[in-house]
Amino acid sequence: MANTHLRFTPARPNPSLRRSLLPLSTMSPSSATKSDDVDLPSSSLEILGARRSLLSRFVSLQTPYKPFPVLAWNRHIETIFASFYRSLPVVKLRRECLRTKDDGAVALDWVSGDETQIPFDSPVLILLPGLTGGSGDTYVRHMLLRARNKGWRVVVFNSRGCADSPVTTPKFYSASFTDDLCEVASHVSTRYPKSKLYAVGWSLGANILVRYLGQESHNCVLSGAVSLCNPFNLPIADEDFHKGFNNIYDLALARSLCKLFKKHALLFEGIGGEYNIPMAANARSVRDFDEGLTLTFGFKSVDDYYYNSSSSRSIKDVSIPLLCIQAENDPIAPSRGIPRPDIEENPNCLLIVTPQGGHLGWVAGHAAPFGCPWTDPVVMEFLEHLHNQGDEKTRSAEYHSDELCGINQSSDSSITVHIQ
Fold it and tell me: Tell me, what's the pLDDT at 143?
């Protein structure tokens, strides 16, 4: 007799609890309003979210948060020191250029040799750098190396024009633009169908990642994610960007954007409409650049763009495990912009706020001052926890499937039942 294939489809769980890794009794919103029940030496950390109890198991959090002396007394000094003096791990990369549906292109940087050296079903980690950042940034390299040393396959998603990624159409990326990430995640998932996918994003990359998680709430191919230094509320971030020393960051980022734009200026030659080419080419602030180019993404104004592109609006729709780590004194991603109530109410989200750290700094821990950020061990433990829990669930499901197969096969030895 021909083999009979039966497909068993379990009832779909509540999206808000999908892929949750804690017992339901520990995940009620009412129990997620305080962090004083988390037994950690790092009492200076602010911890919110239903998943906070699992942090007590993390080795990386068993010692208090200790910023490096001298540097941590000023958030700007810590931010600038990390940007200029953090070590850059040497990693040989292999580039893949991915053509998008709108004829654009992004660059995916994989660790060279991993296609043969790492098991095909190893977990895959997608890294999303910050504004104008890429695979050459120190914080990206350190995270890449840590995950790679744990046996994970890692790929850096360089947005259009970043890290010498080609620009083939008169369109860059923005805080609101998640289409490229959708295509990258789908591409990686198709290439490694037996692997679980995870993602880590920094700054603007974190904003894009969280927006993607909310947008793809019911169809997300990721099994977990981490958001670092996320500006979350862009109107608040923009407001603080024009205060005091922050104007230096604003000018520096504007110059980086202008440099990126001028490199591909011929693509925009003769284009009118919503573009303001002179303003973008000579922008003295990120807001000027956004006003010159970003309005092409369909927004009425820069303020409309900032409001509707804020990932704080997406937190409530996140349906996979998400860890958010912020610094209380971050000059670019203000603490007052963190959507604390929404994080507390979503059982899939967890927030850690450190007292110092600056922006993409976190010069603390045993690797300070030149090594990896304090966050890296915490991020890796979180991801490994998710992956190991997922494997346990998979093994349990396979065990029960085998039992069911045995029952069916004993009923009629002439029929083979395949559970898919």
Answer: 98
Cis, bond preceding 321 (omega within 30 deg of 0) = no
pLDDT at position 229 is 98
- Is residue 232 pLDDT above 50, yes or no? yes
Q: Is the pLDDT of residue 406 over 90?
A: no
The reported pTM is: 0.86
Which alpha helices (H) appear in 264-339, and where do they start and end? Answer: 277-281, 286-293, 302-308
Structural tokens at position 134:
């890429």
Mean pLDDT over residues 340-366, rounded?
A: 97
Q: How far apart are CA 114 and CA 143, in angstroms?
A: 16
Locate 80 and state its tokens.
Answer: 């600038």
Alpha carbons 299 and 15: distance in angstroms, whole number: 30
- Percent of the chain at pLDDT above 70? 82
Residue 306 CB partners (closer than 8 Å, separation 6+): 175, 234, 235, 237, 238, 290
Please identify every residue annotated as catalytic.
203, 330, 359
AA letter at 215: Q
Cβ-based neighbour number of residue 267 at 10 Å: 14
SS3 assignment, position 9: coil
Q: Tell me how far the alpha carbon of residue 147 is from its chain's centroid.
A: 14
Mean pLDDT on 229-233? 98
Mean pLDDT lowest for which of 9-13, 53-57, 192-196, 367-371?
9-13
Average pLDDT on 205-213 reads 98
